[in-house]
Amino acid sequence: MMAGVLYLCATPIGNLEDITLRCIRILGEADIIAAEDTRQTIKLLNHFEIRKPLISYHEHNKFEKGEELVELLKSGKNIALVSDAGMPAISDPGEDLVRLCVENDIEIIPIPGATASLTALIVSGLSTVRFCFEGFLPSNKKERRERLQKLSAETRTIIIYEAPHRLLDTLGDLMEQLGDRRISVSREITKKFEETLRDNISNIIKVFKERTIKGEFVLVIEGINEQELIDIELKKWHNITIEEHIKMYLRQGMDKKEAIRKVAEDRKLPKKEIYKVGCNID
After folding, report:
1. I need a labelling partner for 13 at 20 to 30 A (CA). Which of 35, 191, 205, 272 fits?
2. What torsion, rounded to 10 degrees, do the Cα atoms 214, 221, 94, 27 define?
3. Which bin fits 161, alpha (ψ -120 to 50), beta or left (φ > 0)?
4. Tens of pLDDT, residues 105-148
């Protein structure tokens, strides 16, 4: 018996008109629909007059249900996987089901559609040439700050999801760790009260301190300027001499030639200038 196919179906992130004709067809043809929240999905299916068996698949039951869904796929059933909104497997337990299917040689077909991250990016006014998606930051404040510290040297545009009750805390941490960069904040994308605010982080904080914060948010943050990043890197070495800098790499196991090359790279100086110091080190 041939195994079935797992279809990854993108559902609307707000406006039901954003569903694709292909997605409606696949949902209608699938043997089973696996849904993150069956109560949400049934509303969508009822709207398009689709009647199919539903299986609940979410973060808290993904291990046992994942195995169950793989067995159904192996038996020849075609399954459509949907999340509450947008693309399944993006900041979503569908990632684990996809991995299971890959391990079991089950065919996976994406049915693309709306996704909040890219929708917010294209209206942000920030660079779309290169970007990175961080999803939801850690809820723990210390862990969140540590993650943002690592992102402080990111030159690409950064996309983050955030819940309303944590918005001000996250904006404050962004200001502290990344500085007063340009940011675009989108909420309720494609819905009735859709809104996008574009400004520096400090001004956005002022706006939301004076408002009742509602809706799900996508934050799109400017990456660090390349020259600014170079300046920051150079400042790291201001407190040690070239000789100390070379010795630091020698202690790490590099040979002298490699250490001199690395120091020249760090300090953005000609290698021959570093060599003059390095040749006197035993």
Report:
1. 205
2. 70
3. beta
4. 999 999 999 999 999 999 999 999 999 999 999 999 999 999 99
